[in-house]
Write a sequence for this structure.
């Protein structure tokens, strides 16, 4: 990408053209998705006992990066194996996050629950997929065995 921007800059400068287009293209390519996987806490603290507290310490944070409320009704969050959470009627407020926890709990605007009795995210490495109701992948986040959480 750097070589392309540099060549475009040199060519544009030689022709006396403005160089804003190549610079804008470089920055827009790095834009955040409107709705993204912000963090995955794939290894809950302590031993994996299967307690609801331990299960809910394993989670994924989804973030709305825009200044507009966004409906994510019917969207899914899944792992490589296919364990899937499907959002019911849900609007993620502008700039807000929602945490999808593995265990059981009462759904709120801040927390949602898989209601599983065992862990979803593999400590040894996995990938989280966020997809629209139509099945289009919006964002992914992958990790390996090091650490316990990943900011995406």
């Amino acid at each position: 990408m750097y070589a392309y921007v540099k060549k475009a800059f040199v060519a544009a400068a030689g022709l006396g053209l403005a160089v804003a287009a190549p610079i804008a293209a470089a920055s827009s390519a790095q834009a955040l998705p409107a709705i993204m996987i912000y963090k995955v806490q794939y290894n809950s603290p302590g031993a994996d006992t299967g307690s609801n507290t331990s299960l809910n310490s394993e989670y994924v944070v989804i973030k709305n990066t825009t200044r507009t409320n966004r409906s994510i009704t019917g969207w899914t969050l899944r792992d490589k194996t296919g364990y899937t959470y499907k959002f019911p009627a849900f609007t993620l407020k502008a700039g807000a996050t929602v945490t999808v926890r593995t265990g059981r709990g009462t759904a709120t605007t801040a927390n949602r629950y898989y209601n599983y009795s065992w862990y979803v995210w593999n400590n040894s490495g996995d990938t989280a997929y966020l997809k629209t109701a139509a099945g289009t992948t919006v964002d992914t986040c992958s990790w390996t065995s090091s650490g316990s959480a990943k900011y995406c």
Summary: The chain has three helices and eleven strands. The two ends are 21 Å apart (CA to CA). The longest strand covers residues 137-144. Helices lie at 2-14, 20-28, 52-56.
